[in-house]
Amino acid sequence: MKPEELHALIEEYRDGTISAADARRLADAIRSDPGTAARARKALEYAGFAARALEGDDDASFARSFAERVRAERGGAEFMSAFEKRIRPTARTRRLETASTSPIPFLVAAGILLALLGLLMSRGNRPPPAVVADRHQEQPEPEPRPEPVPKTAPAPMPAPESPKPAAPPTVDAPEPLPVRPEQPKADPPVPPVEPPKPEPTRVVRVGVLARLEKIEGDVQVDGRRAVAGQELETEQTLQTGPTKSRASVVLADGSRLGLEADGVVKEISKGSKGTRVTLSQGTLSADVAKQPADQPLTIATPHGEARVLGTVLRLVVDPASTRLEVREGKVRLTRDGKSVDVPAGQFATAGAGTPLAAKSLSPDEIVLVAQQAKLTGAEWTLIRDLKSLTGVALEAGQSPFKVVDHVETRPSYATFTFFAPADREYRIWLRATSLEKGDPWTRDLVTIEPTRCVLSQKSPFFGAAPTTAYVFTGVAATPGYTWLSGHGEETKAEAPPLTVKFNEPGWQNIRVYVGNPWVRIDTIWLSTTQKTRPPARQAPPSPTEK
Asked: pTM to 2 decimals?
């Protein structure tokens, strides 16, 4: 039985308002639970109620004893009744104040508890019935005295404003109880059991390590459409769609990651060994804030790991290999237990059968494939094409612009970004085809624009306008894919290929604009060695071969 419920029943018993059913319930609790019996004894001992209640033979006699004692004590000859009359007019007022914040009930309870502690510790086994009977006989008969004092109290109760002198250490209630010879063998008193302390709640928080700063196109997190500003938690998968899709991610330390179209980042996590990013496919650019020497940022791919302490880099992952390009700082690339440090201006490739070595980013060959393009606007689409060199191609759709319109005003284009030096002149080769049927003159144009560079020729479509945009012609002159450099009409003599030289080393851009719809592009090849038009089926050499 809960202490609050026991207290209420005892109060009703003492006030004479307890029902027979509640009396039986109180008797059951006292007989079945030693702790409840001890608390009831402490509450009733001074009034002389407990002896008969605890010695009754059955529930009926216990209930009857309650009624008898209530009638016998109704006159108020009790110690506690006298005390209560000093401090409150009625028992009902006392019960109402117990529910308030007044400390007096607690002081009374504490006094009773201390006074009877010796009684409970010395009692041990139940005393002989004769002793209990004598104790009952010692209780005074009820007299209509205004402030009676019980015989068990050595002195009258002090005024309520000074409850401290009423502390029961001077009460000699336990003395009439004899000590039986076998008392040392009695079970020791059970110490109060403290409630078990609740275990601290373990809060498992999934670490928020990154935030989507900007998204373009179809970007998903764990298969659900992402939104700008969304936080990325540990082990969530970030995926960009195959067309017009890009995601910019800001890490907690300020590092920035750019995931291009058709890319998948399976994990961003942080542990005692630093931050880890898992790139399973696609192109990832990274501007990494300075990291602690023992906690680098590690970018893992299916072919190796790039360990970064603070730099600007670019990773391109395809099914066969991972290419690391470093613009600033130094990155360690590891595969199968072997490592190579790649400094600024160099690159390295990790893949089966490929030597792990750093090489200059002033390569003889720069190869740009369709899936590396960043799409802006709605005119270009990245599609699957089994006839292309990589299985993917860019397809031009309808455009409201004419081919002679200056590109500065056009909002839709595809952008290729790459690292190139300023001390090399590259021939530009474009591999393309057209699916449009009808007049070849209306389906064979596409415009490219290298930026921050000098071209060897000016496009006749733009006259004297100050632009580096150039219109390639002749895409539909032959069936299927063909290589072009400026123009490729069958009826015209082969013109010298178009060349480009960049103004300064670093990350360069080539933008591609729609000339005619349904033209497809799969590769742009910048070469220092390919001087003549390649056969249509020729693939450019891997940059690692030079």
From this structure: 0.45
